[in-house]
Amino acid sequence: MIKHKSWLLLLLFFICFWFLRFDSIQTGSVNAATENTIKVYSVLPEDLTRALLNEYQEKTKTKFVYKFADKGQTISADWEGFDLIIAPRETMINLSSDGKLLKQDSRKENLPLALQDAEGYWTSVCYDPYVFLVNYAYSRRVGQKNLLSWKDIAKQNDIVISMEELSGTPEMRYFLTALASKQGEEETFSFLKNINKKIPQYAKFAISPIRLTTIGEADLAITSRNKVIKYIENDFPAYIVEPSEGFPAQVFAAGIGKASTKRDSCEKIISWLVNAEDVIIVTEKLGYGYLFISQNKFENEANRESLLWVNDKYLTDEKRTELVEKWLQNVRFADK
Question: Which runs of consecutive H residues, i.e. helices, occur in 165-307?
Answer without folding.
Answer: 170-183, 185-196, 207-214, 225-228, 263-275, 278-285, 304-307
